[in-house]
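task queued by scheduler; priority normal; single chain, no ligands, no partner chains; default sampling; output format set to structure tokens
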Amino acid sequence: MRKTLFSLAPIALLALAGCNNDTAETTDDAATQAAADAEPITLPPAIVDSGVYRCADSSVIYVDFYEGGRRAGLRTEQNGTSTILNAPQADATATPEAGMTPQTAEAETDTPTLTGGDGYALMGTGQNIQVTLPGKDMQTCKSS
């Protein structure tokens, strides 16, 4: 019985010697290379300012201004769903409209009208903004 046990030991050692962990390293190398080749992730813009505004018709709106000044989130209820408003994309080949100087055109792009949803528009930042809501005319809203 001891002879049989000792004769099986080399077979067991050969079986263990056949195990090779190189496949795990190869997989790790492939994953590392795939991560390096992937395009960088672009995070959404951060909220830089939030405000509660009372409008001329006594309604209250909630506005979140995003980094870069080209996007805002507008809510008509405090915990309501935000409607994202975006500035129109600038066309690098566009020329200023007739009668508009390059300085005037540049000044207009500093505070663009943000639009989105179905009939939403917002212009301005800070204490006073102008807002158009669906079915309503443009009105001035003030932050307290």
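post-processing summary
- The helical segments are 2-17, 22-37, 102-110.
- Residues 92-109 have pLDDT under 50 and may be disordered.
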